[in-house]
Write a structure and sequence with these properties.
Length: 322
């Protein structure tokens, strides 16, 4: 099989193509002939050895989400999976390859009306967005701020919040990304790298905000958390800045603000599976539209990582094997 390996932590250049024997499924596993592999921002942090969460052991084949066709199963796995179009997690690594192993229990059949690329794009981002939206439960007329609003998760959160009748303010780091979030339905948008954006945001929200979906952290959290109204909800779900934001727990308690960490979304394996199924069904029905901003051949994984780190990528970035 073809794969992309990182022998050591470093810049995108440490990602290099390699040829390896095709893996064989062990007990409970299947092998997927990969058509699309999803890249997350976390992948770039893991590769750099700078993840704010648990790291990886090098050498490593990154990637925890793939879409394709099951072409081999272990002896204890139902052979009816052979030939099925699926998306699946890969256990944390191994996705940047033309063949990947996965547990049969992690497989999701791709709805017949859904393209494989779209299914792969919502595999992880969709379950995250659906879970966050379900917990925050924004209602009609509530004010919702979505950060990184043109990213894989953020673009889905914008759509979900708009569908709930909320007034959505989209924050993104480039004007083109702000425009994309507006095209998805956000009523307002701001470039958080623009001049005096914090003042502009406060002017836009003189009465505060009910819900914040914070995928950036760091200084963005410092700006947004004080704007949350008493009884509001703050959901930190990413650290694209490289650092999680700091929330004053005493202040949150005093103002009765519910802070929901990402770990509370899909707290069990069954919960995560159900959230993924819901995201796939919503996408198949047209209620969610993933933004696949760019695709790269598998062998160009380094270029894909470089684009993400340069903040030029929009929406979801996929690797393709064909």
């Amino acid at each position: 099989m073809r794969a992309i390996i990182a022998d050591r932590p470093g810049g995108p250049e440490v990602l290099r193509p390699i040829e390896l024997p095709d893996p064989r499924p062990d007990a409970g596993q299947v092998r997927v002939a990969v058509e699309h592999a999803a890249i997350t921002f976390i992948d770039t942090q893991l590769r750099a050895g700078a993840s704010p969460g648990p790291g990886v052991t090098f050498p490593v084949i990154l990637g925890n989400g793939v879409g394709g066709t099951v072409d081999a199963v272990a002896a204890d796995v139902d052979p009816a999976w052979l030939g099925a179009r699926v998306v699946t997690a890969t256990g944390g690594s191994g996705g940047y390859a033309s063949a990947a192993l996965a547990l049969a229990d992690d497989l999701h059949r791709i709805p017949t009306s859904l393209a494989g690329a779209d299914a792969t794009a919502v595999l992880a981002d969709g379950r995250t967005a659906v879970g966050l939206h379900r917990v925050a439960h924004p209602g009609p007329g509530e004010v919702v701020v979505v950060t990184a609003a043109a990213g894989g998760v953020g673009s889905l959160l914008v759509q979900l919040a708009v569908s709930s009748g909320a007034q959505v303010v989209a924050l993104a780091g480039e004007d083109t990304k702000v425009a994309h979030a507006r095209a998805l339905g956000a009523q307002h948008g701001l470039n958080y790298r623009g001049a005096a954006w914090e003042r502009r945001l406060r002017d836009l929200l003189p009465d505060g905000v009910d819900v914040v979906f914070d995928g950036i952290g760091s200084a963005i959290t410092d700006t947004l958390f004080p704007l949350v109204r008493p009884g509001g909800r703050y959901l930190p779900h990413g650290a694209a800045s490289g650092h999680w934001g700091t929330i004053d727990e005493a202040d949150a308690t005093t103002r009765k603000i519910t802070v929901v960490p990402l770990q509370a979304i899909g707290a069990t394996r069954d919960d995560l599976f159900a959230l993924t199924e819901e995201a796939l069904q919503l996408t198949a029905a047209g209620a969610l539209r993933p933004t696949i901003g760019q695709t790269f051949p598998l062998e160009s994984a380094a270029a894909a990582h470089a684009a993400i780190e340069a903040r030029t990528a929009i929406g979801k970035t996929l690797l393709t094997t064909t």
